[in-house]
Design brief:
The complex is a heterodimer of chains A (539) and B (292).
Chain A: H1 50-55, H2 74-91, H3 101-110, H4 122-126, H5 135-150, H6 155-161, H7 169-178, H8 187-191, H9 198-213, H10 221-231, H11 239-257, E1 272-275, H12 278-283, H13 286-297, E2 302-303, H14 317-320, H15 322-339, E3 343-346, H16 350-358, E4 372-374, H17 375-384, E5 399-401, H18 416-424, E6 428-430, H19 455-463, H20 465-474, E7 485-488, H21 492-504, H22 507-511, E8 513-516, H23 519-525
Parallel strand pairs in A: 1-2, 1-3, 3-4, 5-6, 5-7, 7-8
Helix pairs in contact in A: 2-9, 3-9, 5-9, 10-15, 11-13, 13-23, 17-18
Chain B: H1 2-29, H2 58-71, H3 73-78, H4 80-109, H5 118-143, H6 145-148, H7 153-176, H8 181-193, H9 197-201, H10 205-220, H11 225-232, H12 249-258, H13 275-279
Helix pairs in contact in B: 1-10, 4-5, 4-8, 5-7, 7-10
Classes of the chains: A mainly alpha (539), B mainly alpha (292).
Chain lengths: 539, 292
């Protein structure tokens, strides 16, 4: 029997205690369908060690995404609170925060507290409706801090317009962590009848912490954008290492396709500069290999770049920092300009699509306003326009499609991927819901690459839980391990998150549920392939 | 007392106009923000070379806004249970606003004595719809666990006051003016034409109270969520798919911002330099934050 849960109030955010506001137990979690329905239940994430608890802030939910060190004394706490307030003032200033001021103000002012958004949030639902994960929880706290400390409303008005929130260090520390319990999928914003974007409020909070206080997850900042700006890629791949990978790709192509080709690299004046998430070269090299096969088979004029910044599509700034977002976008476009290509095509990386094609659009001026597009419409033209000889029977196994939020809800690319799959996969079946109503993979906004302390377990068992449920439901009639199944996830981060939930639940070993990108399915369906492109080997 | 009511009434109208103008100005003056968009379905990005395609027109956006405002379509699709009372309330309210506009126009442009009972039916029906919807919303807000979450106490006061305003209106029309539209129109004409000032200074309590209530609403309206709904559709807000074109208006406006200094203080930002310089900066300083 479930224990009665303590009611969490908005004011609890400022409780001056190291004890987490909530501790999530196995019984709290959203139930999963078969075959995981009857599995032994375990708590979603382990407690931090005593040493970790002593050193790092984890008083939100016992999880640490940021490895945020505890202040040494009261004076340091006060200083940090003061810096938070200065950052908040900047966030609300049209001069300091011109890049997002208008939608932020709209989102702060328009919420009618109808809670329509709550049922849209996969984290809130998966956690068993934990109050602190409700999309409006962090927004409402921020709103009330603004009313009290920035607008300086009097005591009576503060009381009338809502409960008083005390701005102390525990409030700031918990808000910092809370900004990283939302994957910015913006499903809540899509649901909001008034257009209030709780996802944006979460991102703006992240930005405040990064741009004013220097607080951001190490994986996104130090090993992410800073590393990318220093060495060219967030994975740390150097131009020399990249060249080596290209040679390896050529070997792979020869083995699978039976043809030795020279992958075009730094070919000036090509029509297309194709940019991959560099994580593909490290973890899923078959994806760039499949692109190369398909583009060569279709006779496209294309190239990769081995220039620093030219072989990395990611831009983690999209998730937490406007300055880093702008810096990386400019570097990427500069590479394309130098190569004198006609356009940049983003490969299977969702946030790179949204970041460079949509968000950065208004900071790319003059010659930097360079043509940029998604690979999806191009691939659709190749597959559905008869440019490739394809045999759908080669893909005659159950396939379902995960919609990366950045393609669908955040960019409006909904149909090309479906038309491709209907053409080449006879057993294609949709997840429910899908398209612009899809659920996040749980790895969005950097979660897929964040693994501080117990955060990975939190992600796998809470933020990815809804996706796991959807995958199992999509394959519920073919769970027999004798039938190989494919989750198509055309985004690097989504792929990483899905890999982790399939692995941690043993779904490949026990039920033959595999995962991969979209272009691999196209290559697999090509008549001219010497060997099956998909090798069904777990990695 | 009558003078005070007059002052509040005309003052509230002036306040309403000025505040609305200020809000519109704030919206127009807002800096162009980055393209942070949500999509209800397929967009131009489904095409190769999308930059050559035509984006959605202003007329289409306007039509979408009108349908949303009239039918509260978003609530209908997303929160049907709450939509029922909201729809009753808003339909009643729109009809009531139109009815007041009709009263003001009818009182001035045509013979008052010939006014038919239609005006009374319209006003009463609208008031009834608004009252039922408003009461249902208040009850739901008090009883439904989800709708109670984070709902500030002042909004309960607002709903009670709204219901009192409606009751005050019914009292004034049906008891004071005895449901007579010609009597009501005569009163409205006095207000609109500034005739019979002496009468205005010694108003009857029922219409005076209703006018006072209405004044409070006029003062509140520019801060209400209905206004927010309108601003959501402003050219550079949600559902806006306007790409930045070379030499276009967006580029011009963004260019101004790039000359501004970056004021954020974290070590990697390099505060004080212009946006243009900071964004094109090659060097990344150490990550160490000395204050932590």
């Amino acid at each position: 029997m479930k224990a009665k849960r303590k009611k969490i109030r908005l004011q609890d955010i400022s409780l001056p205690t190291d004890e987490p506001l909530i501790t999530i137990r196995a019984d709290d979690l959203m139930p999963l369908p078969p075959p995981l329905a009857r599995e032994e239940k375990k708590d979603p994430y382990p407690s931090l060690s005593e040493e970790q608890k002593k050193r790092y802030e984890s008083s939100l939910d016992g999880v640490s995404a940021l490895s945020l060190p505890k202040p040494r004394n009261k004076e340091e706490e006060e200083k940090l609170v003061e810096r938070f307030l200065r950052g908040l003032e900047k966030l609300l200033s049209p001069n300091d925060n011109w890049l997002f001021w208008q939608p932020l103000i709209q989102s702060l002012e328009s919420c009618v507290r109808c809670q329509t958004c709550s049922d849209a949030c996969p984290v809130y639902l998966s956690s068993g409706n934990q109050e602190i994960y409700r999309p409006t929880y962090r927004s409402e706290i921020l709103r009330r801090i603004i009313n009290k400390y920035i607008k300086k409303r009097g005591k009576i008005l503060s009381k009338l317009t809502g409960d008083d929130i005390e701005l102390n260090w525990p409030t700031v520390a918990r808000l910092a962590e809370l900004a990283y319990r939302c994957s910015l999928c913006r499903r809540c914003a899509q649901r909001c009848p008034l257009g209030s974007d709780n996802g944006l409020i979460g991102r703006e909070l992240r930005k405040l912490f990064s741009q004013e206080m220097g607080i951001a997850p190490k994986e996104l900042h130090e090993s992410g954008t800073v590393q990318q700006l220093r060495v060219g890629a967030s994975t740390g791949i150097s131009p020399e290492a990249f060249q080596g990978m290209v040679e390896f790709m050529e070997d792979e192509i020869e083995e699978k396709w039976g043809r030795r080709i020279k992958i075009p690299v730094d070919k000036e004046g090509s029509d297309i500069l194709l940019i991959h998430n560099s994580g593909e070269f490290m973890s899923w090299i078959e994806n760039p290999v499949a692109f190369a096969i398909v583009f060569e088979a279709a006779g496209l004029s294309w190239t990769l770049s081995s220039e620093i910044y030219g072989y990395e599509a990611t831009n983690y700034g999209t998730w937490y920092d406007d300055v880093q977002l702008a810096r990386i976008s400019l570097k990427q476009v500069e590479v394309a300009r130098k190569l004198k290509v006609k356009k940049m095509v983003m490969a299977e990386c969702g946030h790179a699509h949204k970041g460079l094609i949509v968000i950065a659009d208004r900071i790319l001026l003059d010659e930097m306003n360079f043509p940029r597009e998604s690979f999806l419409p191009l691939l659709e033209e190749l597959v559905c326009g008869g440019k490739l000889e394809l045999d759908p029977q080669k893909n005659n196994f159950p396939v379902t499609l995960h919609d990366p939020c950045n393609f669908v809800r955040l960019m409006g690319i909904v149909e090309p991927q479906r038309r491709i799959l209907r053409k080449i996969c006879p057993q294609f079946r949709e997840m429910e819901p899908h398209g612009v109503e899809n659920y996040c993979c749980g790895g969005g906004s950097g979660f897929a690459i964040m693994s501080s302390m117990n955060f990975k377990e939190w992600r796998e068992n809470i933020s990815s839980r809804m996706k796991l449920k959807q995958i199992l439901e999509a394959f519920n009639d073919v769970l027999d391990p004798g039938i190989k199944k494919y989750v198509c996830a055309p985004c690097s981060n989504c792929k990483g998150a899905i890999r982790d939930i399939l692995a941690s639940n043993g779904l490949w070993e026990r039920h033959s549920i595999y995962y991969g990108g979209l272009v691999e399915l196209v290559a697999n369906a090509m008549v001219a392939m010497k060997k099956p492109f998909i090798d069904w080997e777990w990695h | 007392m009558g003078g005070l009511i007059l002052f509040i009434f005309y003052g509230s109208i002036l306040f309403f106009i000025l505040t609305t103008a200020l809000r519109v100005k704030k919206c127009i003056d807002a800096p162009v923000h980055l393209h942070w968009e949500l999509y209800k379905g397929s967009s131009i990005y489904e095409s190769t070379e999308w930059w050559t395609k035509k984006e959605i027109t202003f007329g289409e956006k306007l039509w979408s806004m009108v349908l949303d405002l009239l039918f509260l379509r978003e609530f209908y699709h997303r929160n049907r249970r709450f939509w029922y009372p909201l729809y009753l309330f808003h339909t009643g309210l729109y009809l009531l606003i139109l009815w007041h506009a009709w009263l003001f126009i009818r009182a001035v442009v045509a013979d008052i004595e010939t006014a038919s009972i239609f005006g009374w039916v319209w006003g009463t029906f609208s008031t009834l719809l608004t009252f039922i919807g408003g009461m249902a919303i208040l009850i739901m807000r008090m009883r439904d666990e989800e709708l109670k979450v984070h709902y500030p106490p002042v909004h309960y006061v607002k709903w009670v006051f709204l219901l009192l305003t409606l009751i005050g209106g019914v009292y004034a029309v049906d008891l004071h003016f005895k449901s007579s539209i010609p009597s009501l129109l005569k009163y409205v004409r006095e207000q609109v034409t500034f005739a019979d000032f002496e009468h205005k200074l010694r108003p009857a309590p029922a219409p005076a109270l209703h006018v006072l209530f209405a004044s409070v609403w006029l003062i509140y309206l520019p801060f209400s969520h209905v206004y927010q709904l309108f601003f959501r559709y402003y050219h550079y807000l949600r559902w806006d798919d306007v790409p930045n074109r070379k030499g276009g208006e967006i580029e011009k406006r963004v260019r101004e911002h790039l000359e501004r200094p970056v004021t954020w203080s974290a070590p990697h930002i390099q505060s004080g330099k212009q946006w243009r310089e900071v964004a094109s900066e090659m060097q990344q300083p150490p990550i160490l934050d000395s204050n932590r």
